[in-house]
Amino acid sequence: MSLAHDLEALAIDIAQDAGALARSRRAEGVDIAATKSALADIVTLADREVEALVRARLAEARPDDGFLGEETGAERGSSDVTWVIDPIDGTVNYAYGIPQYAVSVAAVIGEPAPELWEAVAAAVYAPATGELFHASRGGGAWLGDRRIEVNAEVGPAGALLATGFGYDPATHAGDLARVARVMPMSRDLRRAGAASLDLAYVAAGRLDGYFERGLAPWDHAAGALLVTEAGGSFEFVAGDDAQPRPLVVASSPVIFDRLLTAALDGED
Ligand code: LIP
After folding, report:
1. What is the CA radius of gyration of the chain?
2. Looking at ligand 1, which atom is closest to the CA of residue 194?
3. 167 ligand 1 Cβ < 6 A
4. What CATH number did the domain enclosing 61 receive?
5. For burial by CB atoms within 10 Å, which of 11, 40, 206, 252 has the most?
6. Which residue has the CA at smallest separation from atom 13 of ligand 1?
7. Is residue 250 lining ligand 1, measured as CB closer than 6 Å?
């Protein structure tokens, strides 16, 4: 088997174990451990516990690999592989009991930076539904054992799109201005609160496209590979002095250029 396929199998196994722990902790009741970048940016004890499980499993299986996790940060490895982990993507949903959250596991090769790495394996597991989205580079994108593809066409009513908003209230005016620029091409908008699942839904044809400014690398590392392996288009636009928050855009190829242009133009 190829390295990518082996890494995909490991990502699936770890995501499912981690998801079972997250689901169990949710049933027991969730404790907020701290706030991070803003009052709305919370971390639960389960986030930390799940990331610890993922780190331990990876250290046992592939001790030379690097790690980049939402809760414990970056650790360089001696191999060319880095694991990019969001232990519970959709943390606010998770804390409120909304079942739209996922464990996102990606293996990337090269520099552990979104504009430089090559994602080679991905698993996004939604514990509340049991849905497992996974992919390996060149191996296609899957929902369980069913191959998935982005929508080849977008209907006359327009595109069903998803987006998200930053935790910092100061970013909301720019986010809403971006929504206003995108809406003319859209039939409706979804804001479900977990980027990895938004990207998985684009890959599965449940959404025609997704855009969001301000995501962290672990929010989109796995979902981006799902989209491209499902025949979709994905762009990561790094932040700069004018627009410090990076932009992520993913969609069916038939609307990508128009969606990227609308999402990029204007203020942050
Ligand atoms: C979340 C993303 C979501 C975004 C939120 C937050 P977290 O990640 O999945 O798309 O809108 O602001 O970044 O914090 O739940 O891992």
Report:
1. 17
2. 9
3. yes
4. 3.30.540.10
5. 11
6. 215
7. no
Number of domains in the chain: 2
For residues 203 and 95, membership in a common domain is answered with no
Q: Do 230 and 253 fall into the same domain? A: yes
Which of 215, 220, 247, 248, when mutated, tests ligand 1's pocket best, judged by the most ligand atoms within 8 Å of its CB? 215
pTM of the model: 0.96
Q: Ligand 1 pocket, 91 CB below 6 A? A: yes
How confident is residue 266, by pLDDT bands cut at 50, 70 and 90?
A: confident
